[in-house]
Amino acid sequence: MTVRDGFGFAADAAMNPLSYFIPTGATLGIYGTDAVNERSLNLASFEQVEESVIDLYGAVRDGYMQRREAAIKE
Prior knowledge:
The protein has helices at about 5-15, 25-40, 45-50, 55-74. By secondary structure, it is mainly α.
């Protein structure tokens, strides 16, 4: 998560109407479940990356930053 993403995440959380009606733990559970679901839907992509790179952390970081840069330009 970049600094820009952190501020956006905080603003999105403040604007989410569920956060006013359900406890914070439940809200965090929803976000955690979404993260696990995203990983499970893209498992084949993650496995291909793991097999083809030496430095997994660096490859994931670079890919994330390239994706964020493209999203910001749009």
